[in-house]
Amino acid sequence: METSILDDVRKSPVKVLMQPCSQTKQLTHLPKRPPVDIAFSELTYTVREGRKKKEKTILKSVSGQLRSGELTAIMGPSGAGKSTLLNILTGYKTSGMKGSITTNGQERNLRHFSKLSAYIMQDNQLHGNLTVGEAMHVATGLKLGKDVDKEEKVEVIKEILETLGLLEHSRTMTSNLSGGQKKRLSIALELVNNPPIMFFDEPTSGLDSSSCFQCISLLKSLARGGRTIICTIHQPSARLFEMFDHLYTLADGQCVYQGSTQSLVPFMATLGLVCPSYHNPASFIIEVACGEYGDNTRKLVNAIQNGKHNIRDGKSFPTGPIEKLNNASEDKVGDAEENRNIAVDPSPSDNKDGKSSSGNVNLFASYVTNDIAKDSEGTGDGQSRVVIPMDLSISEKQDNVQTPLMNTGNQKLQPYPISEALQFWLVLKRTLLFSRRDWTLMYLRLFAHILVGLLIGALYYDIGNDGAKVLSNLGFLFFNMLFLMYTSMTITILSFPLEMPVLIKEHFNRWYSLRSYYLAITVSDIPFQAIFCVIYVAIVYYFTSQPPEMWRFAMFLAACLLISFVAQSVGLVVGAAMNVQNGVFLAPVMSVPFLLFSGFFVSFDAIPIYLRWITYLSYIRYGFEGTALATYGYEREKLKCHQAYCHFKAPETTLEELDMLNADFTIDIIALVVIFFVLRISAFVFLRWKLMSQR
Ligand SMILES: Nc1ncnc2c1ncn2[C@@H]1O[C@H](COP(=O)(O)OP(=O)(O)OP(=O)(O)O)[C@@H](O)[C@H]1O
């Protein structure tokens, strides 16, 4: 057999292109984590689709083993079930699944598992309005506990960025990073707490061949450090394919190959499927799985026992009974030794460091020396490569570090490394930073409020104290409601769903609780909305000559502020429950009844009794009533009037016509506050439901 890059790596840590060790770096600040082997058995995943809810089986009783220290590729033709399998293994999808998943031989506990794993999704899901450094700062703040002080966090950021070749881009906005850099940043963000299991969905999609190589080199190095690295990949080039240690291939929801990449071609040959010379083995297995060489799926599935067999290097191909799953057998010991040999840095002193900290089982409290050799120099073919072998000395710690995984019973583990109050504070600070940088959210909104304020001021100039223009003034009051409602609602409907993919990723990777996040985003926009509303109201109130008393202005402003907060909450409910397209259409449509029953178009008395209940739900009614009472209520003196007959000269007449003579401003305010809280809680419930329904 040809000597592959992988062979070279196994024999010597310094031989291959990937690891020239031109420069040795040490990651000294990553928390120590246990190595984790994953096994799954008889995994079946079904969904129900269509009107008749017909059952569709996507994964058909597949089994497999994914080991620490190995880079595993999940391959297969399009629609074979790769993403589904990955989603199940990560714990992202839980419903509709049957079978067992174990970690280090123990039944997987999803809560514990999620703390040990990170899922890097295909689209990176980064906040474009943060610099690389800021994004890392937030990640370390959220993912490292109080035990790690500020200086150490800065060191962690520096080391990871340097290792991943991003240090020089630490001031670059993430939206300006290249595809490969974005992918590396996604990895860097998750690497902060050093998860022993990392899942990647199509990490090379959208990358050029050089960036693909860099990316897979990076994953390989992470695996060498003792992590379990699993990624789905479509059809890697022969050069990339060789870099994988382990291959898991699916066809039509069944496993057609599981084992080392080198064993693939000889294994297929034993079944009469001979890979042509100079043909990429990755392409060959995909072609076979697609049926280009006849229907061989059944033959392969039977030969590999649908994933129960695992073809290891140097082992004969399976003929006898099925290999035991979750094996911690002599085979495993040998592999661990092999991993250690690959990962260990030439420097003996570094290795000693690794040993000295091996007795500590606390996941966060102690640190281990990680040896990093980085090559960011040209490789002779004009391509820049980043190579990062990391050593976690897992084999020495294995006995000890399995303990946290196994204690899944009564042991009470903190769900997050930091308190929810601190999570709230960090997410709030980040959201405020976005707001400051987001043009649409800030400057455009400010501009719109000032412009519309001036326009309304000019249109309704000096009508507030004119008895002949009361109807126009009521139109002005109603327009205020309309404007404040739509501006606050639409911006939330447009911006909130865009946050959703990042929220899904970060929440799934346990950066923060949904509660902390929601509270932070709820609070973050309130000051801005309040400032815009105050500016708008001050302009229109002054130019339209509403009553000059300060207390009336305060009442008017309070009603307007509450209307914009309530409308923002409606936007949150709609944004949490549906996508932008549906939300932009439905929210204004759903607001129509509330506008109709606001008391402006039809007074309460004129509304048919069976429809009156809608007025109680109409927040616009409370706002409109509040502003009407602020301007015409509370024994306001008669308005000036230059006409012979002025019907609305006495302010009470206006309130009488509106059927608001007995209205109470306090009740309006209380009603708005109640509606505000009900909507905010509903938005949270919808958000939780949406996150759960994805799974
Ligand atoms: N919720 C669902 N409802 C119906 N069918 C589904 C659902 N999820 C997945 N499928 C189907 O299951 C099959 C496997 O989907 P999956 O996304 O896992 O494939 P894949 O191997 O990742 O494909 P690709 O490489 O094209 O991304 C596809 O035929 C897909 O249409």
From TrEMBL:
Xref: InterPro entries: AAA+_ATPase, ABC2_TM, ABC_transporter-like_ATP-bd, ABC_transporter-like_CS, ABCG_dom, ABCG_transporters, P-loop_NTPase
Span list, region Disordered: 310-357
Residue ranges crossing the lipid bilayer per the database entry: 442-461, 473-496, 517-543, 555-577, 584-611, 665-687
Subcellular location(s) per record: Membrane
Name under which the protein is recorded: ABC transporter domain-containing protein
PROSITE patterns to which the protein is assigned, alphabetical: ABC_TRANSPORTER_1, ABC_TRANSPORTER_2
Keywords: ATP-binding, Membrane, Nucleotide-binding, Transmembrane, Transmembrane helix, Transport
Annotated Pfam families: ABC2_membrane, ABC2_membrane_7, ABC_tran
Superkingdom in the source lineage: Eukaryota
Domain ABC transporter: 38-277
Molecular function GO labels: ABC-type transporter activity; ATP binding; ATP hydrolysis activity
Lineage: Eukaryota, Metazoa, Ecdysozoa, Arthropoda, Hexapoda
Cross-referenced SMART domains: AAA
Sequence similarity: Belongs to the ABC transporter superfamily. ABCG family. Eye pigment precursor importer (TC 3.A.1.204) subfamily.
Membrane topology recorded in Swiss-Prot or TrEMBL: Multi-pass membrane protein
Chief localisation class: membrane
